[in-house]
Request: fold
Amino acid sequence: KKIISVIGARPQFIKHAPMQIQLQKHFNALTIHTGQHYDPGMSDVFFNELKIPAPDYRFHLNGKLHGQQTAEMMTEIEQIAVKEKPDGLLVYGDTNSTLAGALVASKLHIPIIHIEAGLRSFNREMPEEVNRVLTDHISELLFCPSNAAVENLKAEGIERNVHLCGDVMKDMLSLASGYLGDKMEGKPYYFATIHRPYNTDVTERMLVILESLNALNAPVVFAIHPRTVSRLSDYKVDLAAYKNIIAIPPVGYFDSLSYQAYSLGVITDSGGVQKEAYWLKKRCITIRKETEWLETLTGNWNQLVFDDVASIREKLDMSLSDYNEELYGTVDNSATIVSLLNDKFYK
Ligand code: UD1
Ligand code: UDP
Reply:
C-alpha cells in the first residue's frame, strides 16, 4: 500500500523523522515537501541531521498570503495525488501544509491520516486552529496525543477511528538524547523562541517582549525564526541594544534541544518547544493566552503569560511539582501509530 506524507514546516520535518522510519517498514512511503519553509536552516538542516530521506516531491512557493500559499500547495499536491493514487495521505498538526494536503485528499476520496489530531486552543483567530478543526473533520483516521484531544473530538461529534497514541515528537526527542551537549559551556542562560503573529506582528508587543527578555537575571539565547527576523527588520529594531539578549539564527534540532536541556528555563510561543521543555524537565514560560498542551501547565512546569509580559521574571521563580513521566505517551508512539495503520486499517 502507498501512503504519501505531506510536510512543509519545521516542526513537521521533526515529527516525520520517526514516522518515516516506521512507515517505510510496512508501506510504500512517499513524501511531499510543500516548500512552506525553505531556508536551509528551516528545512535542509533537519533532513540532514535526522536522516530523513529526500522528499519525492518538493515545491517552491511564491505566495506570501495564506490563501495563495495554500492554493499553490493544493494545485501541486493534487497533480501528484492523481498520478500516484495513494491509499492514504498523512498530515501532521495544523499548518497551511496540513490543510492543503487534507483538502486535496478529501476531494479525491483518499483517506486522510491526521497525526496530532484533536488539539484545540479555542482561539479561531489563530490560523492553526482553523487548519486543525477543518483537517480533523475531514480525516478518516485520527491519532491523538492526549486524552483531552480525544475528548475535544468527541465534543465535536468525531468518535470513529480516533486513537490515543501519544506524541511522535517524544519519540524523536528520545532518539536525539545522545546528541545533546552544553552549548554555553556551563554559563547560566535562558533559551527563547518567538514566532506567533500575535507576538511578532504588532510592534509594541514585540518590543515589550524584547524588553522583558532583556530584564531577566541571566542572558537569553534567542534563536530567531525568519518571520521574527523580518518583523524586527521592518521595525528597525537593533538587537545589539538589548545587552542581555544573545541573538542567533534558527538552530538545528539537536542544538535546539541542547539549548533547552542546559538552560535555566525556556521562553517560547512554540507548540513543540513547550512539550520538549517539559520532557527535558525544564521550566517553560509560554507567551500566549492559551495552550493546546494543557497538561504541561500542571505543577507550574509551563506557565502562560500574555498581557503582563513583564511577569515572566517572577514566574520563572515559581516552585515546580507533579512531574508526569508518561506525559504524551511512551517513546514508541510512531511505531504504535504505524502498527495500527498496518494491522487494522490497511490489513
Ligand atoms: C508556520 C505555521 C505555524 C508553525 C510555524 C513553525 C501556518 C499558518 N503557520 O508559521 O503554525 O508554528 O510555521 O515554525 O502554517 N520565512 C522565511 N524562510 C523560511 C520560512 C519562512 O523567510 O524558510 C518567512 C517568510 O517571509 C514567510 C514568513 O516567514 O512569509 C512566515 O512563514 P509561514 O510559513 O507563512 O508562517 P510561520 O510563521 O513560519
Ligand atoms: N526548533 C529548532 N530550531 C529552532 C527553534 C525550534 O530546531 O531554532 C525546533 C524545536 O526544538 C521543536 C520544533 O522546532 O522541535 C518546533 O517548531 P516551531 O517552534 O517552529 O513550530 P511549532 O511547534 O510552534 O508549530
Remarks:
- The domain at 178-315 is CATH 3.40.50.2000 (Rossmann fold).
- Residues 212 and 310 are 5 Å apart (CA to CA).
